[in-house]
Amino acid sequence: MSHSPVTSQWTDVSGPDGRFGAYLARPPAGQGPGLLLLQEIFGVNEHIRGVADQYALDGFVVLAPDLFWRQGHRIALGYEGADRERANALKNALDTEQTWRDLEASLSTLRARPECSGRIGALGYCLGGRLAFNAAASLGIDAAVAYYGGGIQDQLALAEQMRCPIQFHYGELDAHIPPTAVEAVRQAMADTDAEVHVYPGAGHGFNCWARGSYHPASAALAHGRSLAFLATLF
Known about the structure:
eight-stranded mixed beta sheet
């Protein structure tokens, strides 16, 4: 049985509110640009860890912080039933200021990693997509990618504060983010260094192979676009 050339492990982040875990995936080359991977409401689950390994294989040093650490240790949830209910409760209990401190601490930890070559991007899905958008405005990163970021359309005043290029990915049939919201993002970001991509026939969560909404063609196209966009970090 062959072994993955990616090295992955859980590591610790020291923040102002305490120590918490983060999933770290390192590339076969041993070093590369940094990528802060921001979770959905389902925690740093198998999908997020798989995405971390995927981007590490592409050459990035990936750190996925456990943003639910105050509510439980390494929470990793599925997408239906009781798990979905718990995920929504965890999301609703998140404190914005605490989460931001965690992101700042995670970024500092990633920057300090000897494997990290200096330039850093942020990539997030759903909840994490919105956080990646926020990070592009005020966290001092070099690029951001937001997949179906819920609530971005309600934070468009941040468009004027964008400090780095940003790329958006939306499913045409996303029941949580209507076309009007996507168009609002497109218009607000028109004068910034932004790309907005919409995937026909795809719904919310189209990148996740563990969900019923998985749309392989859109996931592959979005991954290629994300890689081309993030290649500027090398």
